[in-house]
Amino acid sequence: MTFTHLPDLASRTLAGSVVYANDELFAERENLIKAGPAVFSTEDFGHKGKVYDGWETRRRREPGHDHAIVRLGVPGVVHGVVIDTAWFKGNYPPYASVEATSVEGAPSPDELERASWETIVGKSEIRGDAENTFQVADRRRWTHVRLSIYPDGGVARFRVHGEPVPDPRFLDGTIDLAALEHGGDVVACSNTFYSAPLQLLLPGRARIMGDGWENARRRDGGNDYVTVRLAARGRVRRVEIDTSYFVGNAAGWASLSGTDADRPDEDAEWFDLVPKTRLQPDTRHFLRSASAAPVTHVRLGVFPDGGLARLRVHGELVADAHRAAVLRWLDLLPAGHAVEVLRGAGVPGVSAQELVNRRPFTGGDVLPPAVMSLLMTTAS
């Protein structure tokens, strides 16, 4: 499946949460979104029976089915899901489906139960002790997904791979332009031997050395690098290069360069944001940007090799990029959510529905300027 390289939007690492399950008697719902594969012990029993590293409901004796609702840590466009039934062999659900919804704010479980849900994976047969993968064709943006199992049973992990699409109303001011939760992504990397470079862009501090990016030891005289596509075109103000937990294997030096190109190629012009700078092991380094010129991508070079925990690229979106992000977000919202957003920005109900019916907004001047001014406040 081509979607599994995309971030897991449901992961606890990205602040995802299983906000509700109608039943979790044998194994708690929170296990669904834990990082890493499920583990199993033949000796691990509790007072309710065998303890599984997953979500498991009791044997259903009445009509119906079980379900769990996951708030995505980062809302986005779902490209595919993985329903992993690892270690569940005689107690897995024979069928499953996935539904999705898009709502404002932080609704309660009761409010989510009343929300409008759309099926993105129809009721499908699944196998026990296996990773069951399903591609998703719907390209709308969702905030929550619901895993439904028929009629009951256990699921070890639930992965929701997709493209982050953050709410652009919260992208004004100074933000981390490289953050995965803001739409940043790794588009190129010289070496991924020990760990994935995308971890550089995760929220929060690294907990262990394995939470960062570490390449193999270089013996050819060159250097390693990571290229990051920023959330949108912006001006970089300051940079954080963090080597926390990398002690004997931290990068010795680092640099950060930027370019202003939609898709940087070999002819792209790169300029210094942070010239080559000495790094210390297990240290957060805070550096000022040498340029305020707009950039779309940054390239982090490490010399000659070595590990880093996090990269932060703080700055502001330029006005045109922020406006484009607002329009694209509105285009990707399900119709009901888009109407709600426009009504909240002062558009009367009937007019809001008429505007939504005229989508896409991207590339046009459909939205009244007063509405756009309420949806974006940056003044780059």
Automatic annotation (TrEMBL):
GO terms for molecular function: allantoicase activity. Belongs to the allantoicase family. It comes from Nonomuraea spiralis. It holds the Pfam family Allantoicase. Keywords: Hydrolase, Purine metabolism. This is Probable allantoicase. Its EC number is 3.5.3.4. SUPFAM superfamilies: Galactose-binding domain-like. It catalyses: allantoate + H2O = (S)-ureidoglycolate + urea. Pathway: Nitrogen metabolism; (S)-allantoin degradation; (S)-ureidoglycolate from allantoate (aminidohydrolase route): step 1/1. PANTHER family: ALLANTOICASE, INACTIVE ALLANTOICASE-RELATED. Residues 16-164, 183-317 form the Allantoicase domain.
